[in-house]
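User: what does the whole thing look like in 3D?
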Amino acid sequence: MASAVAGVGTAGNARALARDARRERLAKLALALPALALITIVMLVPVAWLFGLSFLGDDGHATLAHYRRIVAEPAYWRAFVTTFQVSALTTLICIALGYPLAYVLAALPARIAAIALVFVMLPFWTSLLVRTYAWLVLLQRNGLVNALGMKLGLWGAPLTLVNNLPGTLVGMVHIMLPFFVLPLYGAMRAIDRECLKAAASLGASPTRAFLRVFLPLSLPGLVAGALIVFVLCLGFYVTPAVLGGGKVNMVSNQIAADIEIFFDWGGASAQGVVLLVLTLAILGVSARLLPRGRGAGGGAP
Amino acid sequence: MIARHRLAAVALAALAGAVASLVPAAASAEEITVVSFGGAYQDAQSKTLFQPAAKALGITVKEETYTSISDLRLKQKAGANTWDVVVSGSGSAARAGAEGMLSKLDYKAIDVSNYAPGLAGEYCMALDVFSTVLAWNTKTYGQNGPQSWADFWDVKKFPGKRSYRKAVAGALEPALMADGVPPDKVYEVLSQPGGIERAIAKIKQLKPSIAVWWTSGAQHAQLMKDGEVDMITGWNGRFDVVAKDGAPVTYTFNQALLDYDCAGIPSDAPHKATATKFLAEIAKPQYQADFTKYITYGPPNKKAYDLGTIDAAYAKRLPSYPANAAKQLPIDLAWYIKNEARAATLYQNMLSE
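Assistant: Here's the predicted 3D structure for the full assembly of 654 residues, as structure tokens:
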């Protein structure tokens, strides 16, 4: 189309079009400028400063000591392992709980789905700290869940439900679920349900239609949601600190401890840099390997 | 003549008045910024130490809040320190002093002649004395619970969930005492090769019974209030606060660690002279006696016990009360300056296993 237009227009017309395009690009840049400036000031500059700090020793000379320690001391690399384990587990649980939920929501009539979505969003509107402490109150030894379970005779002695990894996962999944469900719901809404009918008319069983048609079409939404959840989990601090009982030591917890005990901003920066690099690497790899950007209509027969 | 005299007198009075009106202006320009830990703790300090002292000296004391002395390090690195007095734990203050973050205190200007021994540090002057004690759940063990660190480690005699500190400060000494080291030999053993490892091995042994590794005073108090654990280490004043609210918790001073919070002056404080005057004022016993009304932390100035401000029965509950102090092991700051970094790394490695 575009080349056809250029073909019939005169040379002057083409120049004017090019000028307009340039002007539009500049206008877009100008619109983005305040946000870019803000990001530069509040994010890029501090990150660059921390990056520099991570290569400086206490004496002010350049050193790799902070990075060497991350490799040499088990507490540090174990914090990285824990961080990725907890984030992966949270993401998997979110997928297991969130996919059916989004599926049901997307199948509902739009008006009812809107009401149901409010309930998905509700946790969003409560402070993360409040929700985390609420779980502590519910799950602790003399908490509501144990009291109820024992009253109903489901278990005899209080169960250890919190101050451990499972308790931390409960809190993190609760906080992360909306981040997963919303993009997935959007992707599922965009799927043309006629495709499923077409599959059925061609002899596919409901299971087969779901696996071969619906699931692939919803995959971009699933990947987007899972990536958001995974990356946000990597930086979690409060929830593992409150619900982990000191046993779920993620990188951010390790950083906080280092600053408090050693006044060690260089070491803390080094951990931050490693986490940032690993996160970017994961995002880069998944952008290449995972199906993204395939529009819902792209797979239409 | 008389009239002239009178005129001169009036003129002089006017002049004096003008000067006098200038003087308070100059005095109020004398302003220092004090930073402490916030919360109920700083409220008590503000009401009994900082603001009354500011009033007595005719200066303005601005208060700020921070997390720990590592915040000072960051400000100093950026060359932007605005704090004149920092309140800190004794251990971190001693290390900050050794690293050049604090200036040496001028004890010619600050009278600490009535301070209990060891409480007027080179870089940091004690404001209150507290204990890291063994506390227990009275619903689980009654009033006569575990009485020693050996009991804390004895999971057969005292079955139940424990909670222990996640940071290394004050964590190794109880382990060695539980391992049979007499209190007065604890730091000697810890300074020997393998001493830290011995303490850490002892804690590792108890690890299956430790349900929570606590990180703050607010947290260890809440754990006992909620009955989440049966036995815990922690700072005595915090337990008294929740016990007053009906929490089933009590503690013993036996084998506790005697420690203190203190005030120091950053090496690059903008108003050092005023800060020194301020410390000299809050070193006086009457301020410190008032402070004890808010929390059961003892006064470093022994004279505070003689003023009649502290009720006799109440005095017996304070960590620095002589009979209580005698049962305890004072924290050895020199050991922490030298060994805390290595000990903390080994401790974290054990925790992360």
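In plain terms: The interface with chain B takes residues 58, 73-75, 78-79, 82, 140-142, 160, 163, 241, 245-247, 249, 254, 257, 259-265 of chain A (CB under 8 Å). Chain A has 13 helices and no strands.
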